[in-house]
Structure formats: C-alpha cells, structure tokens
Amino acid sequence: MSQPVLSLWINGKSQPSTSARTAEVFNPASGAVVRRAPLAGKQDVENAVAAARAAFPGWRDTTPLRRARILMRFRELMQAHRDELIHLTTEEHGKTREDAAGSLQRGIEVIEFAMGVPHLLKGEQAEDVGRGVDCHSLLQPVGVCAGITPFNFPVMVPLWMFPVAIACGNTFILKPSEKVPSASLRMAELLREAGLPDGVFNVIPGDKEAVDALLTHPDVRAISFVGSTPVAKYIYETAARHGKRVQALGGAKNHAVVMPDADLDFAADALMGAAYGSAGERCMAISTVVAVGAAGDALVEKLRDKAARLHVGPGDQTGIDMGPVITAAHRERIQKLIDSGVTEGAKLVLDGRGLKVPGGEKGFYLGPTLFDQVTTTMEIYKEEIFGPVLIVLRADNIDAAINLVNSNPYGNGTAIFTRSGAHARRFERDIEVGMVGINVPIPVPMAFFSFGGWKASLFGDLHVHGMEGVYFYTRSKVVTSRWPGGEERGSSNLSMPTLG
Ligand code: NAD
20, 111, 122, 343 - which has most CB atoms within 10 Å? Predict the structure, then answer.
C-alpha cells in the first residue's frame, strides 16, 4: 500500500475519496503497481452529482459561442500536453507511444467537432406551416450527464463523450476505468485551465459501486457507456428503468472478409495493424478473417510471416509494434482461450504463449497468435478474446461469408478486401454491422460522423459523437407560433386544429 492514491476531481478541484477502497493501477510493461485508483463510493457520487447539478444553470446559460471558446483553449492545452497524455496512456495501458498518439489525435478531433457547437445547435425553421403560423425547433441540454469508460482507450473514449456533452450545455461526470484513471484526471485539470467553470466536469474513478450510484441517481439524466457487452446490457437496462436516456456501446467480434480477387499483400499488411495493434485490445480490432475461396492458403501464409516478424516489448521503446496486455489475469484468460482452440481442433499457425521479452519478465506479454481452420462452434470464435489472437475461417463464396458475419451476435465493425466494386457494394448493403470498411481494416468514423455498432455491440439507438452525439446530449423542442393581427379573433374551435 505504499503507492500514491489518486484523488477524485469534483467541483473544479482534487478531493480525496470518502471511500477507503482502492484498486491497483499497473504498468503492464513492467508488471509493477505504479499507483492506486480511488474507488468512489456513494457519497462521492452524491458530491459529484451535487456539483454538476449546481453548475448546470450557469453553464446552460453560457452562450454556445463562449462554451466553444473554452473548448478551443482546451484543444490547445491538449496539444501542448500531448507528450504527457501519451506517456500516461502508455504507462497505464501498455500500448505503444505511436498508438497512444494516434488515439489522442482521434480524441482531439472530437473536441474540434464540438467546437462547432454554435452551428450544430441550430434547429429547423419553417415559415407558414399554417396561415400566419411559423414553426421552429430548439436543441436544449438535458442536464447532468455521466460517462462510464473502458480501459482500452484512456484518452480517446472519454473524449468521444464529454466534449460534445459540455459543448451542448450539459454538465458531466466521468467514471473512467479504474485500470487507467490518470489521463481522465489530467484532462479535468486542463479543462479548468481552459476556463471551464467548476462543477461542469467531474471525474470519479471507481467500479460497480460508483456506476450503480450513477445509474440510479434521480438527478443524472443521461448515461453514455463504452465497455463489454454484458455490462453494456446491464447499464442499458438499469439506467432505462430509472428513466434515463442511455447509449451503451458493447463488445465486438469484427470480421474481415478477404475475397480471392483482393490484393493479398495489401490485405495482410492491413490485417497486421487491425489484429495486433494495441495488442488486439480494440473494440474495432479485426479478430476474425473470413478467407473466401482461393484466398485462404496464400493469405494465411502471408499473415504468419508478417505476424512472426512483429516486435513485442514495452510501448515506450522505439521499434516496438505491440505492447503487453492490460493485466496478468487478462493474459491468463487469453492463454486459456488459445488452449481451448488447440483442444477443439483449430490449426495453431503461430503461438504467442510463453513469449519472453528480455527485461520484461514480469510484464503481461503475449506474442501474436494465429489460428487457421477455425469453425463457428469453437470458443475462440464465440468469445471476444480482446488480445493478440487472429483466427481464420474459410467460406466458399461471398454469400457464405456475408451469412457467417451476419450470424454472429456482434455487429460493431467489419471490412471487405476486394478489387470488385460489385462485391464491395453487395457487402456494404447486406452486412448487418454498424461500421463498414472497404479495403479499410478499421473503419472508425471520423469525429464528424457517428461511431457505434449494431446488435450486441450497442444497446440504445444513438451512436457517439457526430450529429448523433449532439442529439443524444440534447432534447428537442418544437415551437409553433402565431402573432394575431386581429382578423382571426373570435373563432373558437374545439376540434383537432389543422393548419394547412
Ligand atoms: P468492462 O465492461 O469490464 O468495463 C467498462 C466500464 O464498466 C469500466 O469503467 C468498469 O469500471 C465498469 N464496470 C465493469 N464491470 C461492471 C459492473 N459489473 N457493473 C457496473 N460497471 C462495471 O470493459 P473493459 O474491460 O474496461 O473494456 C473492454 C471491453 O470494452 C471490450 O469488450 C471492448 O470490446 C469494449 N469496448 C467497446 C467499444 C465500443 O465502441 N463498442 C470501445 C472500446 C471498448
């Protein structure tokens, strides 16, 4: 217990948690505990909600242009503190510095999108919907919003949520993953430095206790969640039962369909990053390849050769392609799944178990692993592995491949590799997945589009950021107005009014 315990961030300042519970925060590259995260309790949630509720009227009444200017300053500070945020991400998550930098950039782009909020909040207007009657709509903030985020993107996933929420005039409570709390707390300090009023943004690292208190709190109006599917479903059901709007993004099993007409070298290169980048701990990672017809053998050979050459080691060193996974327990789970693949008869083409990283003996490393001849009944197909394990299934034709993808319960991301416009068009139209790449392995939408999956990858309807994010964090109001000039007087009518 000698490591420092982090604080909460409530009402514009660091505050110790009222709860005595804490969690270890590891550096996955060394296996050492670097600090401890407070596990916020009910009283902490009460305090954060009270601060956010008190700050709401003033923030709602701050004009969108002024809110945007604070976000502009926040964006500049995020740029100025890039190295520090990248360091915190790599230290607590383990991903490489390059990968941390890329995800920071994608997060900053959401701030840039939210900076356009004066334009984004413009409603609709129609003149003369009836004689002398006009109509316009308003987008107004919902109030206190909360975000609950996973371990795998310590900076980017929180940024999917709060810049849009606060730009729209809401106040926000972020409950980051207890495994990677530091970057969220640092962003809170930068927001204060940018001029954000106290209480508009609060951070309470914690676990289920804090989450449950947020889900049931009567003053919390909206919940955004990103994490695993069982928890997403629980969040959706519990928050909805308590009258809140919810967007709960869940887990994934993303397939890449590789057609025989594809450029196989290009596809294999793209699949390296998609499968093994961030040690496979991405909700948009391609974990499953569906090789169609003659593509199979040649593709597997290329994947094996390229994967075997990847450099695994500490994410803060140069020349490293892939860092460790998040915890020893997670590595254990992945290894067991690899064992099950072998037992169930899949062909283990590349085995990452037992990898030794010189100097990193206590780190949570696992080498790139590749399976061929996998079937849909095997555990390694059915489970979201969330590690550096790529599995290959075979399909006879595009119909069988689309059917296979559509039969999977998840629907987050997918990609097709092909030179045929007809195949690409067919795939785009018929695939039941929320984000689709055509010769693009990880089709994460830019900040001005919306991010979200289908089926077991999303509970709720509105996706995050882009216009759907704006709609999630606002309530619409429609105003119908008439300014009588005298001639309409004295005509009471008790039947359903029609204007046209
Ligand atoms: P997780 O579901 O374990 O945790 C996510 C958040 O929920 C954390 O803040 C955690 O503290 C909290 N939590 C965990 N268990 C809880 C419980 N029983 N009750 C209430 N709250 C609980 O997910 P993780 O391991 O941090 O992240 C990995 C998962 O997130 C993967 O399944 C991945 O696919 C998914 N993910 C999805 C997306 C997406 O956009 N769909 C993006 C990133 C990650």
Answer: 111
The whole-number pLDDT of residue 489 equals 60
Q: What CATH number does residue 344 fall under?
A: 3.40.309.10
Q: How does pLDDT run across 244-277, given as a tens digit for each residue?
A: 999 999 999 999 999 999 999 999 999 999 999 9
- d(CA 48, CA 176) in angstroms, rounded, equals 14
**Distance of CA 136 from the midpoint of ligand 1 (Å):** 39
Q: Note whether 166 and 181 are same-domain residues.
A: yes
User: 314 and 270 share a domain?
Assistant: yes
Ligand 1 contacts (CB < 6 A) are 148-152, 157, 175, 177-178, 207-208, 211, 226-228, 231, 234, 249-252, 283, 384, 386, 412, 453, 457
pLDDT(282) > 80:
yes
List beta partners, residue 111: none
| 497 within domain boundaries | no
What domain count does the chain have?
2
Instruction: Among 386, 407, 438, identify where a domain stops.
Output: 438
Q: How confident is the model at residue 1 (pLDDT cuts 50, 70, 90)?
A: low
Q: Is 139 part of any domain? A: yes
Same domain, 213 and 308: no
Q: Got the DSSP string for 322-381? A: B---S-HHHHHHHHHHHHHHHHTT-EEEE--TT---TT-TTS-----EEEES--TTSHHH
Nearest CA to ligand 1 atom 19: 208
Q: Whose CA is nearest to atom 21 of ligand 1?
A: 208
**Hey, which residues are catalytic here?**
283
Same domain? 232 vs 327 = no
Phi, psi of 122 (to 5 degrees): -70, 130
Q: pTM of the predicted model, to two decimals?
A: 0.97
3-state secondary structure of 242: coil
190 and 279 in a single domain? The answer is no
Nearest CA to ligand 1 atom 9: 177
CA 157 from chain centre, in angstroms, equals 4
Mean pLDDT of 114-138: 97
Q: Indicate whether 488 belongs to any domain.
A: no
